[in-house]
Amino acid sequence: xxxxxxxxxxxxxxxxxxxxxxxxxxxxxxxxxxxxxxxxxxxxxxxxxxxxxxxxxxxxxxxxxxxxxxxxxxxxxxxxxxxxxxxxxxxxxxxxxxxxxxxxxxxxxxxxxxxxxxxxxxxxxxxxxxxxxxxxxxxxxxxxxxxxxxxxxxxxxxxxxxxxxxxxxxxxxxxxxxxxxxxxxxxxxxxxxxxxxxxxxxxxxxxxxxxxxxxxxxxxxxxx
Length: 224
Description:
Number of strands: 10
CATH superfamily: NAD(P)-binding Rossmann-like Domain
Order of helices and strands: EHEHEHEHEEEHEHEHEH
Distance between the termini: 22 Å
Radius of gyration: 16 Å
Structural class: alpha/beta
CATH class: Alpha Beta
Low-confidence stretches: none
Number of helices: 8
Strand content: 15-25%
């Protein structure tokens, strides 16, 4: 059972938002960063938000290496830092569930666009760099703005979860469904992660055009 979650890149908006939501539900979270002092400041801010909420888990700040010792680890770094962050943590992350939510995107005057990854996706790159870790892709399309606002009690979105091992996928689905208004669905193996990661470019374009925080919903008879 997952009781602690380490967040590599925990000072960024996506990592902080997911950390906050999990801590509200009673999980202990370690925010990791290349700069442990920055992580400690971010953890103190989240702890202040959680103050007075009964049952909330503890939030602490540490180095990425220390955060990698948690029961499960979320990778929430910018794509530009993805490979260099993970390549030094292969030993520390061996045997652990590693949840990769990184979206390989670029931005120019025309807006967001997907970036090609040699391995096929960020999740597949993580698997190549961490051969002994249990990689699961998830949380690519969840708005960091909505995650950060605890006044929002229904995120109204589905989370697509991708992985090779059904038990690991089930663990991540359970973590996803701790978030209010989230349904999580097993959407295939890691080889299918690329299009899920790249879909975020479309969501960002929608957000900019319509001034919203778009998510996704999957429809169809027989879905849970």
